[in-house]
Amino acid sequence: MAKEASVMAKSVSKKASAGKKSAATKKASGKKALVVYESMFGNTEKVAHAIGEGLSASLEVEVVEVSEAPVEPGPDVTLVVAGGPTHAFGMTREETRADAIELGAEHGAREFGLREWIDRLPARHGGPSLATFDTRSLGRRRMPGSAARAAARAARRHGYDEAAPAESFFVADTDGPLVPGELERATDWGRDLIALVKVTAKETRH
Ligand SMILES: Cc1cc2nc3c(=O)[nH]c(=O)nc-3n(C[C@H](O)[C@H](O)[C@H](O)COP(=O)(O)O)c2cc1C
């Protein structure tokens, strides 16, 4: 079952979204979640797909890399979940992405990341809820700073309220791997988000 959900979430991910969308991913509600991720070494990408798997229990899910993500999600998008790696206590910057590339990262782009995507978001009037996540080093767990919290603060300036508290998932070292159990925790977090979004929608409807 979990495997099946994973396939469904992936079927509308970056590659498939360019072309056809599987009818199997259409939910009766017609509501959609857009999972936007930045990833330099590939760990946050894995977390994004795991979150998508959890969300796919009741929403159609699209998982997209940040440089391909729309800044104006369509009217069918009820929830945006955005995340990236924590660099230098917050969201990545061009310089920190360059550092990651220097260390061998091959997944992300030096020029564009979550920070730049949020900067481009138009002011929200209604529209989808937002939740943020990040990955961080386990060894720096007690240190301050989280890309997810920074992203939530930045998105708030564009009128986005948080549907849920920002969440961190941990990697063992700079380039990974993810700490055992983190992908399962990400799937559970995605599944649990749905209930929070429903509550938020009820509370904000006037
Ligand atoms: C330049 C740089 C700065 C970093 N700064 C932090 C930090 O302040 N706190 C932390 O917990 N991890 C830090 N890390 C570790 C990253 O969070 C880790 O590389 C990331 O979670 C891996 O995700 P990715 O594979 O999606 O890139 C840093 C990594 C790099 C390359």
From TrEMBL:
<protein>
    <recommendedName>
        <fullName>Flavodoxin-like domain-containing protein</fullName>
    </recommendedName>
</protein>
<dbReference type="Pfam" id="PF00258">
    <property type="entry name" value="Flavodoxin_1"/>
</dbReference>
<dbReference type="GO" id="GO:0009055">
    <property type="term" value="F:electron transfer activity"/>
</dbReference>
<feature type="region of interest" description="Disordered">
    <location>
        <begin position="1"/>
        <end position="26"/>
    </location>
</feature>
<dbReference type="GO" id="GO:0010181">
    <property type="term" value="F:FMN binding"/>
</dbReference>
<dbReference type="InterPro" id="IPR029039">
    <property type="entry name" value="Flavoprotein-like_sf"/>
</dbReference>
<feature type="domain" description="Flavodoxin-like">
    <location>
        <begin position="33"/>
        <end position="194"/>
    </location>
</feature>
<dbReference type="InterPro" id="IPR001226">
    <property type="entry name" value="Flavodoxin_CS"/>
</dbReference>
<dbReference type="InterPro" id="IPR008254">
    <property type="entry name" value="Flavodoxin/NO_synth"/>
</dbReference>
